[in-house]
Amino acid sequence: MIDKDIKHEVIIEDGKTTIAGQRAMLLSVKTIATQQKELERLVGEKWGEVVYEAERKAIQEAALQIFGLKQLDSFTKGKTFDKKRMVDTLVDIFNCAGYGVLKLKKFDEKKPYALVTMEKSTIPQEYEKRNSPVCFRVAGILAGGAEAVFMVPMKCKETKCMSMGDSHCEFEISRR
Asked: Does domain 6-175 sit in CATH 3.75.10.10?
């Protein structure tokens, strides 16, 4: 699966959209931003944690399936995988999803650690300027993908966000 060109794995037929073997739905950025804003209104400050955890869990499972792995357990422990190639594959898939342009800036397989930037981030463009980041969905996606790659619990923190006036969004991914 890793060797295939992800851009050619988008299939739309019979009322289904599939990307890299995973069922998908196409939603407008405005719809996603409106959902986030409504969740923030209803739940308060915890809204970001809800979105982050939901995405982290869903993407971890999807990424494991993409790589033909069952789960983070003894089945995967002790096996070696080309982690950089796995990361590159997930970045390719992410860049087809419409969130923005993700770029891997630093990657340390041993720590494990990654620093990524996202240019042209779509969700922050739907917000007025804020004092806090809004890309919890993307952070959860990155954490879940990192867990599938590194096979340990991972976390992701957004350190820059276009919603705060930054020119791009930036995420640090590290061990939990």
From this structure: no
